[in-house]
Amino acid sequence: MRLTLTTINIGAPDPGALARFYARLLGWEIATEESDWVVLRDPAGGVGLSFQTEDPYVRPVWPSGPGDPQMQMHLEIMVDDLDAAAVWAKECGAVMAEYQPQDDVRVHLDPAGHPFCLWLG
């Protein structure tokens, strides 16, 4: 039996807009785009990202407290220059989170509010 993880699916209020954010951030191209479903493929052949409409959509809170909408997962993106990557993420439309738990990681929020980490590798 073979099991292969091919795509991580992210819920969003506007999957096209969020896919374009990640396409720009990562330098990937959109492989499939429909009104409620968009797919990005890793040009290196790794796991892709897909985005689907969530209605109603509730932005996660990070870090969350009791009763807050929690993130279900987050992306870890390895970088070789943490400061330059943080600037690039901001130029693409991300916001750096107020709370930063580690010196070698920068937590950002994508335009839909999903946290993702840039980490020095």
User: Could you state the CATH homologous superfamily of the largest domain?
Assistant: 2,3-Dihydroxybiphenyl 1,2-Dioxygenase, domain 1
Spatial strand arrangement across the major sheet: 1-4-3-2
Total count of strands: 8
The radius of gyration computed from the alpha-carbon positions, rounded to a whole number of angstroms, is: 15 Å
Largest sheet: 4 strands, mixed
Q: Oligomeric status of the shown chains?
A: single chain
Contiguous runs where pLDDT drops below 50 for at least 5 residues: none
Q: What is the helix tally?
A: 2
CATH architecture of the largest domain: Roll
Cα distance, first to last residue? 33 Å
Structure description:
The chain is of the alpha/beta class and 121 residues long. It has 2 domains: 1-58, Roll (2,3-Dihydroxybiphenyl 1,2-Dioxygenase, domain 1); 74-121, 2,3-Dihydroxybiphenyl 1,2-Dioxygenase, domain 1 (Roll), CATH 3.10.180. The protein is 19% helix and 34% strand. It is built from 2 helices and 8 strands. The chain has helices at residues 15-26, 82-92; strands at 7-12, 29-34, 37-41, 48-53, 75-79, 95-96, 105-109, 115-120. The strands form 2 sheets. It has a 4-stranded mixed sheet with strand order 1-4-3-2, covered by helices on one side. The protein has a 4-stranded mixed sheet with strand order 5-8-7-6, covered by helices on one side. The longest helix is centred in the N-terminal third of the chain and has 12 residues, at 15-26. It is globular, with a radius of gyration of 15 Å. This is Glyoxalase. Residues 4-121 form the VOC domain. InterPro entries: Glyas_Bleomycin-R_OHBP_Dase, Glyoxalase_6, VOC_core.
